Input
Amino acid sequence: EVQLVESGGGLVQAGGSLRLSCAVSGLTLDDYAIGWFRQAPGKEREGVSCISNTDGYTNYTGPVKGRFTISRDNAKNTIYLQMNNLRPEDTAVYYCAAALARFRCTYYLYGRYEYDFYGQGTQVTVSS
Output
């Protein structure tokens, strides 16, 4: 059974930092591109970042570029999202997702293709 379990969310003041983790089991992480996306109440799902399975290629959407950093540790089957200089508009449930790397991860980040597996999400709340 494939599982993606996010952790590390919480309440933080604007300007603060959080590091989200996504623990993956049941698949060979080396074969999968990983993405983070978020969804705030009443808003559509928004891609945040993605990382390829092999060459370390990463991509970020505009609102988080320069503030968030995605990384992966395949030996630990874990993907991380370091979030710095958080803003109230970053408040959302954050999800990680995995896609068998048939395409560049950017295609999944911007919704051109769907991920294969999803986590259950972790809440991030940024107070002003």
